[in-house]
Amino acid sequence: AICDGRDVFVPGIMELVERTGIHSGDSISVYPAFSISQKVKGIVLDYAKRLGKGLGIVGLYNIQYIVDENEQVFIIEVNPRSSRTVPFLSKATGYSLADIATNVILGKSLKEQGIFDIYPPEKSRWYVKAPVFSFAKIRGLDAYLSPEMKSTGEAIGYDDKLNRALYKALQASSMQVQNYGTVLVTITDKDKEEALPLIRRFYNLGFNIEATEGTANYLKANGIRTRIKRKISDGSHDIPDSIRQGHIAYVINTRDIGSLDQMADGYQIRKCAVENNVTMFTALDTVKVLLDVLEETTLTISTIDA
Question: What local confidence, expressed as pLDDT, does residue 147 receive?
Answer without folding.
Answer: 82
